[in-house]
């Protein structure tokens, strides 16, 4: 049994509905953010919005007639380029340019709308620089890799990257290395 609310508590909580409390996706969101060590919730919400846009577009393309030539063209463009994102500097702080889908690695197989329909925020999180570093065995954990990136120990090609939200395309994945002046590089060999 719950005690009766005092007068000042009633005044503060008069607009709160305890019966039908709005359940948000907070537990799942926190789990994903902790797994991929996403430090800013805004980054996760941007990934969520992008993945939702890709899924919506894939569903609209599926609704088109299979014999329609535009459907084949749109299917190819979605798998290759997915709208609103890009391959240039693909960190969230950058300007988004067209051209990413399969080449970024969010979509695993070209020419497949079913795969586009399963794109989630986790798909974008798996392309973050610290996660790629763990996959390339440059760090043991994502948190450690994030610290290395923030401290300026990592470069992609000739450019030093200090933003852990940087999304690495498939083409750039091979160019993730330690900076020349990095103490980690000197220690590792």
Automatic annotation (TrEMBL):
It is found in: Nucleus, Nucleolus. SMART domains: Ribosomal_S4. It holds the Pfam family S4. InterPro entries: Ribosomal_uS4, Ribosomal_uS4_N, S4_RNA-bd, S4_RNA-bd_sf. Residues 4-126 form the Small ribosomal subunit protein uS4 N-terminal domain. One of its GO terms (biological process) is ribosomal small subunit biogenesis. GO terms for cellular component: Mpp10 complex; small-subunit processome. CDD domains: S4 (cd00165). GO terms for molecular function: rRNA binding; snoRNA binding. It comes from the Eukaryota. Keywords: Nucleus, Ribonucleoprotein, Ribosome biogenesis, RNA-binding. Belongs to the universal ribosomal protein uS4 family. This is Small ribosomal subunit protein uS4 N-terminal domain-containing protein. It comes from Rhipicephalus sanguineus (Brown dog tick).
